[in-house]
Amino acid sequence: MADFSTFSSGLKPRLSAEARIVGSEGTVTRWDESSTPVPHATVFPTTEEDVAETVKYCREKGLKCFAQSGGHGWRVRNSRDINVIISLGQLNTITIAEDQKSVTLGGGTIIKQLIESVAAEKLEVVTGICNTVGVLGSLLQGGIGRYMGKYGLGIDNLLSVNLVDATGTLHRNVNESTDADLWWSIRGAGTSFGIVTEATIKAYPQASELSWIGSVAFTNNPGSKIEKIVKAIQELEVTDKMCLHLLFACAPPAFTPAVLIMPWYYGSEEEGRKAWKGILDLEPDIVDMTMAPAERLNDGNDPFGEVGGRKPGVGMGLEKIDPDAYCEIWRLFEDFVTENPQAARSIVLLECYSKAKSLSVPRETTAFANRDIKYETIVCPWYEDPTFDIKANAFSSSIREIWSQKCSHPDGRKRVYTAFSGNNEPTESLFGERERVDKLKAVKAKWDPENYWGALFDI
């Protein structure tokens, strides 16, 4: 890449007056620094046209660019080849339709901004469960979240997008009628086809302003409770008003290994206690549950959303949870964080949602293949020292191997929610069988034949 001043002086006249260009010292810190790009320049566009012009300029100069909103994308492939970051944070306008049935949001909107805006109008939308994550980065890869039991996946609620393609052309109002194959691909693999600068999604009236949410913790000899906890989760009937997160983590202030369960019930405390009776009957050491408004539902996940540090996580979709497997995983986790205090913020996470609504959408209608995964999981080592990478990756691989052997599909297939994937996943694990992958590649060949947008997935 030419020096920064040459790049900036060439691009700046093509952008809006408010757009900014900064050198490497102004790079936005990403959530995971283990594969973060080290660009020569970061562009902060204020209009969709700024994004298009930046892509055009980069293509003219033979430069690789990469867009980010919240900056939580995991395991950026070939990150050292990325010359320019397009930081979308200023494209964060939120417009609620007059009939309140849809919301149009800018490509840089983060989840907390959207939730607060719609809650103020007593509306709700399907989003992810971390406040600081970009709405569209997670949605375009499927979009799981606590409201999916009621309304389906995020992609099932997507109405249209504006997309900057690999030539820098801005396509407005892309939807089923404008290009059916591109629309199919965007819903599940959207980050591989361009930069979505704006999207319109469905909105719904709130059924309740408050939900029962919080955490219960097992801190006194938690390993002895694992088998009962897993069996209780197995026996749960997760309705469309419920979701659950199970974490192995180190609980402050002493940061000793603990088991945390974060239940949510969309209704009253009385109803919630009945729904989660199987968990509460396990007699957790700490119960911290409360009635909370919609705009506060993700607050309990804020510590996990903290940017910076190395978090080379990997995920896997599970068909079942096996008590023996989770006892083994607990022992590995406990040993890892005890022997390596620099990694005390590491976690092992399992997410459980009602899938009935998303399964009612025919699988062939979107590029998202793994609707029927029962549990989404992540193992995420968290530390600072790059020399610890080998040990951290070995830990993740050990846990993933247990999931693969004891909790995955009977035929041995590994399936992964795309937003939780590592950087070496087989394409079929993410997007399904060969016929689906072939269709995705055919659309990719039309819209991005050089794989310019290949930083996250190699399609």
From TrEMBL:
Task: Show the coiled coil region(s).
Answer: none
Q: Which residues form the FAD-binding PCMH-type domain?
A: 35-206
Q: Which keywords does this chain's UniProt record carry?
A: FAD, Flavoprotein, Oxidoreductase
InterPro entries according to UniProt: FAD-bd_PCMH, FAD-bd_PCMH-like_sf, FAD-bd_PCMH_sub1, FAD-bd_PCMH_sub2, FAD-linked_Oxidoreductase, Oxid_FAD_bind_N
Q: Which GO terms describe its molecular function?
A: FAD binding; oxidoreductase activity
Q: Which residues form the signal peptide?
A: none
Which family is this protein grouped under? Belongs to the oxygen-dependent FAD-linked oxidoreductase family.
Which protein is depicted? FAD-binding PCMH-type domain-containing protein
Instruction: Write down the species.
Output: Drechslerella stenobrocha 248
